[in-house]
Design goal:
3 domains, Glutamine Phosphoribosylpyrophosphate, subunit 1, domain 1
């Protein structure tokens, strides 16, 4: 895994500033501590920081084809590169390394932009084509590896992380007002936008070409609308799922450096651990994380899996003070405010695992493909309610709203919508938009609900079943957020994370499984759990879903550390953006501390935004070139 960045000056073909490009490159040093490189040719500059995984000696970048007419910087892993390389060699291509990087540049030379269709892996890369005077950029199908860009009439800039773009001499970090409310309601920004004004994402499954001052984008892969076979039995689906998942895990064991697996004790990571353990001759190294609070500590289940497969198991516990002290540091690594509190656990787990291995397997992607979230049950409830008298539904819903449980209350509010799609989008929120509006000024853009409805419609426009529309929406929004979180938190310590559930061939098969095998009545991940019962202790499979949860409501009120950030919400930093209502923020905090309402989720997001604004100021004032420049506690 690596960090990449580059500059293409389009106005008067101004020569790239070497010192500035080096600054951009080296702010990514955490992503690639093993090697670095630079290529500058007049108005084009490419830079690279390397974490060595495959071909430890021969993978230096930037790298070119035989005659130096095409240069590449690349981040990721192409798992089938050897097969592609053999085909290209038979076509006359000459190779000087055994790296997947060189395979990409030769594949581009042979197939042009269609080369991306050949790759099975996770990747983001940029290729400078000297002959065509164009820059070609691409991101993997599911968005496992990030790629950001900025452009104006004078230049095009790209990077693995936003902070590298901010290192450019002419870029001033600025808040994107269109994204703030979406962050407060949904925890993250979906689609192309970022929280930085003028900085965008290359989308999953997309490539882009910058040529003659114009950016053209094209989707080369999308979630397929497969014909669903009703003729296979449940056991046949389980058998094929078993075969494809086993194959995917084996493919991701390819490495020239030590490898292990994250093991949360949940079904997804435990299955990955099981297949990895069965494929390796030596015991696989597994890593789990725990809390000081026993009720939130789930290492017991990870130990059950470790015992069953005789893994080389290690654990780490994050203290409450470590959790709180790490937030500012991790916002810097994340570029944007943290979305999930469990980003912090992922960082500490990655840091701990990185002492023993360079690559880990993880369980991301299964929940979105197999309907693993309890919020997906709203689809079933809407189906059931459609057969009942409206008076009964309203009465039942009014009872639900009186139950003092946040998830049940949110479910009842979702069921109050007239259309199922509105309820589904509402149920994917983390903060009620009316509550979020209380901390914003009236003039602040507040259109995220309508935008997400439109996103939902576009994502599932070719699907007929509501659950199928929902899962595609989740895979194009929430999953991308989770993958960016995993990438940033693992690469903060130079650890490569691989996601077997997101092999595109496996994803295509999952999408062909009838939806009632995913959400069976109210049983989430039905068919995956059926497979898991073949592989895992029953206690692991049948336990309620957790997902590295964090007790935010309690942590904000108590002396665990998060409450120490509350005074920051009472200064004028948020107000000075022109977007926030300072009095409204104070009322929200007071209501929470007095126990009148649970606003822990919103307060967590506000704390993150407030600390993120400190990062922006540091970028402007002191050229924030490393996390060490932040005035924050070490951890």
């Amino acid at each position: 895994m690596c960090g990449i960045c580059g500059i293409l000056n389009t106005e008067n073909e101004l020569v790239v500033n070497k010192e500035n490009l080096i600054q951009m490159r080296d702010v990514l040093s955490h992503r690639g501590p093993d090697d670095y490189g630079l290529f500058i040719e007049k108005n084009i500059g490419l830079a690279h920081r390397r974490l060595s995984i495959i071909d430890l000696k021969g993978g230096h970048q930037p790298l070119s084809n035989e005659d130096g007419s095409m240069w590449i910087v690349y981040n990721g892993e192409i798992y089938n590169f050897q097969e592609i390389k053999n085909v290209l060699m038979n076509k006359g291509h000459l190779f000087k390394t055994n790296s997947d990087t060189e395979t990409i540049v030769h594949a581009y030379e042979e197939y042009g932009v269609n080369c991306v269709e050949k790759f099975n892996g996770m990747f983001s890369f940029a290729i400078w084509d000297r002959n065509k005077k164009r820059l070609f950029l691409a991101r993997d199908r599911l968005g496992i590896k990030p790629l950001y860009y900025y452009y104006d009439s004078k230049k095009f800039i790209f990077a693995s992380e936003i902070k590298a773009i901010l290192m450019h001499d002419e870029i001033l970090p600025a808040v994107n007002p269109e994204a703030i409310e979406e962050y407060l309601v949904f925890r993250y920004i979906a689609g192309r936008l970022s929280l930085f004004k003028g900085i965008y994402r290359i989308l999953p499954g997309e490539y882009a070409i910058w040529s003659k001052g114009e950016l053209k984008k094209n989707i080369y892969w999308d979630l397929p609308v497969n014909s669903i076979s009703e003729h296979k039995s449940e056991e046949e689906y389980i058998d094929e799922l078993n075969h494809l998942l086993e194959k995917s895990v084996k493919l991701r064991l390819l490495s020239d450096v030590p490898l292990g697996a994250f093991s949360s004790g949940g079904v997804d990571s435990s299955l990955v651990t099981a297949y990895g353990a069965q494929a390796l001759q030596e015991p696989i190294k597994t890593f789990a994380i725990g809390f000081e609070e026993e009720e939130w500590d789930e290492r017991y289940f990870a130990r059950l899996v470790a015992q069953k497969y005789n893994t080389d198991h290690r654990e780490v516990v994050v203290s409450n003070s470590e959790f709180a002290n790490a937030i500012s540091k991790l916002i810097w690594y994340n570029d944007e405010p943290l979305s999930h509190p469990n980003s912090i656990q992922l960082y500490f787990l990655s840091k701990f695992a990185g002492r023993h291995v360079t690559v880990v397997l993880t369980g991301e992607g299964a929940d979105e493909g197999f309907s693993g979230y309890p919020r997906h049950n709203i689809v079933r409830l809407f189906e059931y309610f459609s057969y009942l008298p409206s008076l009964f539904v309203r009465s039942f819903n009014s009872v639900l709203r009186k139950i003092p449980n946040r998830k049940i209350k949110k479910l009842s509010e979702g069921l109050g919508h007239n259309e199922a799609k509105d309820a589904v989008v509402y149920n994917s929120m983390f903060v009620n938009p009316m509550v979020a509006a209380r901390v914003l000024v009236p003039s602040a853009p507040c259109s995220s609900y309508g935008y997400r409805n439109m996103f939902f419609e576009n994502a599932g426009k070719n699907r007929t079943k509501l659950i199928e529309k929902l899962l595609e929406y989740e895979m194009k929004t929430y999953l991308v957020c989770l993958l960016e979180r995993m990438d940033k938190m693992s690469m903060a310590v130079g650890l490569e994370a691989r996601v077997p559930f997101l092999d595109h061939r496996l994803v295509e098969f999952i999408l062909s499984i009838p939806w009632n095998y995913k959400l069976n009545k109210t049983r989430n991940k039905y068919i995956l759990k059926k497979l898991a019962l073949r592989k895992l202790p029953r206690e692991v499979v049948t336990r309620p879903k957790s997902g590295l949860g964090v007790p935010l409501d309690d942590w904000v009120r108590s002396s665990h550390g998060l409450n120490e950030y509350l005074p920051l919400l009472r200064d004028n930093t948020l107000r000075d953006t022109g977007l926030f209502n300072q009095a409204g923020i104070g009322i929200i905090v007071d209501e929470h501390l007095k126990g009148q309402h649970n606003h822990g989720e919103l307060i967590w997001l506000l704390i993150n935004l407030r600390l993120w604004l400190d990062c922006l100021k540091a970028y402007k004032d002191s050229n924030l070139t490393s996390v060490d420049a932040l005035a924050i506690p070490s951890s």
